[in-house]
Design a protein that fits this description.
mainly alpha, 97% helix, rod-shaped
Length: 105
């Protein structure tokens, strides 16, 4: 290999080295940018999970309150049914008494 060929080979190697270093630098920047995006995504995901957890807990409390309210409503309806049955029985006795009075009078 003569001096000119040697010089071209060295120049080629230096250009290749420079191109490789540029590519490594670009790749490093891309990796850093990707890491930053992943970090932001992880923070967003964490906040989202906190909000969803709070909503689930709040909904659980609402559901418990509604179940308690429904139980009280059921109890009141049962009491109302009992009172209506008592009223029906008294009306039946009154109707029988009126019929007896009219029929015997």
């Amino acid at each position: 290999m003569n001096a000119e060929e040697m010089e071209r080979s060295i120049e080629f190697l230096l250009k290749s080295q420079a191109a490789l270093e540029n590519q490594i630098e670009r790749t490093s920047r891309q990796v850093e940018e990707t890491n930053n995006r992943l970090e932001i995504q992880a923070e967003t995901q964490t906040e989202f999970m906190k909000i969803v957890t709070q909503q689930i807990e709040a909904q659980g409390a609402i559901n418990a309150s509604l179940r308690a309210s429904l139980a009280r409503t059921d109890e009141r309806l049962n009491q109302t049914d009992d009172r209506l049955n008592q009223t029906d029985a008294r009306l039946d006795r009154l109707a029988a008494l009126v019929e007896q009075h009219i029929g015997g009078g």
